[in-house]
Design brief:
- The chain is an alpha+beta fold.
- It folds into two domains: 15-103; 111-242, Cytidine Deaminase, domain 2.
- 40% of the residues lie in helices and 16% in strands.
- The protein has helices at 24-31, 38-46, 55-66, 69-74, 88-103, 118-129, 166-175, 196-209, 230-233, 235-242; strands spanning 135-142, 148-157, 180-186, 215-223, 226-229.
- Strands 2-1-3-4-5 form a five-stranded mixed β-sheet, sandwiched between helices.
- Helix 2 packs across helix 3 (55-66), helix 7 packs across helix 8 (196-209) and helix 8 packs across helix 10 (235-242).
- It starts with 23 loop residues before the first helix and ends with a helix.
């Protein structure tokens, strides 16, 4: 009798080798998405794994790296670089899904969204900005009935370099035919008070918008624990007096 000596055949760990009723996609279709773990849901989004790891195991790697799904959602783009097995395509797939999750907290239709008070502005921007690792500066453009016409991300980065172009802010207002706007940005540091740079930028926006009849209704700073409103604090009135056209 002759014995064949060689490396043992490695058992496949791919999801297709699992029993059909244990595969994440089949379980989602039969039992619903709520029945799956975070790693399994991520695995479905990724579709395929990398050498030595199936898509679900790759999902566990991501959860360990970022700490949680929330950590993934709030991570800056730079944090995704260098993760083994993640090229541009996989990163784009997951970031698109995570952004959809963030937008699910927003009103269903832009044309149905009205922002008539500081509380409504704070709630709207908190859903968009809270938890982000970098500073994002957004502007909501409104018509005379305070209906949302446009919501634009105009700058992002660190606290030291997030300063949107005032010209761009005005150009977007004219493009959307807005009558008013509300500016907002987040402070990842957790400090709600506006910096001197925040004050000067707001004053510049007011000065640029006034000659063309666009009213600056507020500037809302979002933090993890709350928000600061230029309008409610009285600072907006002060800046209106100081703004030079």
């Amino acid at each position: 009798m002759t014995f064949m000596v060689g490396a043992p055949k490695k058992e496949s760990t791919g999801i297709t080798s699992w029993p059909e009723d244990e595969r994440p996609r089949e379980r989602l279709l039969s039992r619903g998405a709520h029945a799956l773990t975070d790693a399994e849901l991520i695995g479905i989004l990724l579709r395929v794994g990398v050498q030595g790891k199936n898509a679900v195991e790759l999902g566990r790697v991501l959860l360990k790296h970022f700490g949680s799904v929330q950590g993934m959602m709030n991570a800056p783009k730079e944090a995704w670089k260098g993760i083994k097995g993640f090229g541009d395509a996989k990163c784009a797939q997951l970031q698109a899904a995570l952004e959809l999750g963030r937008r699910a907290a927003l009103p269903g239709k832009r044309e149905d969204t009205h922002i008539k008070s500081t509380a409504q502005a704070a709630a709207y921007f908190t859903a968009r900005l809270r938890g982000l690792a970098d500073e994002h500066f957004r502007v909501a453009y409104l018509n005379r009935q305070e209906r949302l016409l446009d919501d634009s991300l105009l700058a992002e980065g660190t606290a030291d370099n997030v300063r949107p172009s005032v010209r761009t802010i005005v150009a977007r207002a004219l493009h959307s035919n807005a009558s008013a706007l509300i500016a907002s940005h987040n402070h990842p540091s957790g400090a709600a008070q506006p910096s001197e740079s925040d004050r000067l930028l707001t004053q510049d926006i007011i000065a640029a918008c006034r000659p063309i009849g666009i009213k600056v209704l507020d500037h809302v700073i979002v933090t993890e624990n709350g928000y600061y409103s230029f309008a409610d604090s009285g600072l907006l009135d002060e800046l209106n007096l100081n703004a030079v056209d």
